[in-house]
Specification:
Blueprint: E1 6-12, H1 17-29, E2 35-41, H2 44-51, H3 60-77, H4 87-94, H5 97-109, H6 114-126, H7 135-145, H8 149-158, H9 162-178, E3 185-189, E4 195-199, H10 204-211, H11 214-227, H12 231-234, H13 240-250
Helix pairs in contact: 1-3, 2-9, 5-6, 5-9, 6-7, 7-8, 10-11, 11-13
């Protein structure tokens, strides 16, 4: 008898590029691993304030490393990240409060659309260097994700409601209660009723280990790596080990 899917919460903010990376990787695995992925829109500024943390870009060496790191991760994970030109204005001044309230409203009213709308907001701010703070910007992203204009406008109106504001605060507080100090924060709930909090988009190997899914992760890492190689080198990696991992991977479907 197959075990029930384990609940996995992803706390994220579209202002965080590392949240986008974690989001895309987990969305790719949600139908492969035995998990129930729950997307939890949160407010990164609130988490930073609560924990006493600060954005890495405010530390010069971290900021410089971050730009190089994101370029490597962009190429490896095939996520089209491109930092905004006016980085400090976008990240530190404009913020993401309205966008995260909108995603909270989407999660409350149209949860089946949350993945697509979240992705479109990331595409705006972290790929096309477009605004995510003005109502029209959010409406454009929502419609591109598949919401009708009437649905998008209705959800935008709810952003100023006490219910939406309270829900975003509750979700942010929940992340803080798990021990979050930044985003993405991943919380995996195990069969023994214990939960494990992981920080960052680079904890997938550890997450796969906790879930007992390391074989499928290993296969997909190899598969991703192969797509980055010239065709003449690919045959060097076609081995018995690779074939075995493919069998394990396919058995998950």
């Amino acid at each position: 008898m197959a075990s029930l899917p384990r609940k996995l919460e992803l706390f994220y903010d579209v202002l965080s590029p590392y949240s986008w990376l974690g989001f895309e990787v987990l969305c790719r695995y949600q139908n492969i691993w035995n998990i129930n992925l729950q997307l939890r829109p949160s407010f990164i500024a609130g988490i930073m304030k609560s924990s006493g943390n600060k954005p890495p870009a405010l530390v010069p060496r971290k900021g410089k490393y971050m730009m190089t790191d994101l370029q490597h991760l962009k190429n490896f994970y095939q996520v089209p990240i491109q930092a905004p030109k006016d980085f400090f204005s976008v990240i530190l001044e404009k913020g993401s409060l309205t966008a995260m309230r909108f995603l909270t409203a989407v999660n409350m009213e149209k949860p089946e659309m949350l993945e697509k709308v979240s992705r479109e907001l990331w595409m705006r701010v972290w790929s096309r260097d477009e605004d995510i703070t003005e109502p029209q910007s959010i409406l454009t992203a929502a419609k591109k994700a598949g919401l009708s204009e009437a649905e998008a406008k209705g959800l935008l109106e709810k952003c100023s409601s006490d219910n939406v504001k309270s829900r975003l605060k509750e979700t942010t507080d929940a992340a803080c209660n798990y021990g979050a100090f930044g985003l993405p924060t991943i919380v995996v709930h195990m069969d023994d009723n214990k939960s494990h909090m992981l920080f960052g988009s680079d904890r997938m190997e550890l997450l796969a280990h906790l879930l007992g899914e390391l074989e499928t992760l290993s296969f997909t890492i190899v598969e991703t790596f192969l797509t980055l190689l010239p065709a003449k080198f690919i045959t060097l990696f076609i081995s018995q080990i690779y074939a075995q991992r493919m069998q394990v991977f396919l058995s998950k479907f």
